[in-house]
Amino acid sequence: MGKRKENSTNMQNQKYVTQCDLAYAVCKLGGRWKLLILGKLEEDRLRFSEIRDRIDGITERMLTLHLKELEADGLVNRIVHAAVPPRVEYELTEIARELIPIWRQLESWGSRHRSLALPEKE
Question: Crossing angle of helices 9-19/21-29, nearest 10°?
């Protein structure tokens, strides 16, 4: 892969994300699946298949990609147990645990907003 130009849009976006705290946070948690994955890991360590089974509609590829990103961002620990066959579990890091009250607030907001935006049909 070639080197990115200093004045490219990607480089400008990268600079903005590193300078703006809100943009940084949204970048780390954004996407359709990341908060759902983190939410499933709130209570306990889970294996890959347990996470996949608890999130309807996520593909194995998307789960793999997001778990790798979350691990690289320091939000998820990947624990490999020396066993045959190998057993891998995922858990929240302390940094991710700081987010629990925030995603609870988002969940509450989503519930209120959905009831206002999507009135029940009779």
Answer: 110
- Within 13 Å, how many C-alpha atoms sit on residue 67's CB side? 22
Strands (E), the chain: 46-47, 76-81, 87-92
| 101 close to 108: Cβ distance less than 8 angstroms | no
Report the 10 Å Cβ neighbour count for 103.
17
pLDDT tens for each residue of 44-60: 999 999 999 999 999 99
Q: Domains, the chain, ranges and CATH?
A: 1-30 (no CATH), 32-117 (1.10.10.10)
| Ramachandran category for residue 117: left, alpha or beta (phi over 0 → left; psi -120 to 50 → alpha) | alpha
DSSP state of 56: T
Q: What confidence tier does 65 reach under pLDDT thresholds 50, 70, 90?
A: very high
Looking only at the bridges linking them, the beta strands covering 46-47 and 76-81 are unpaired
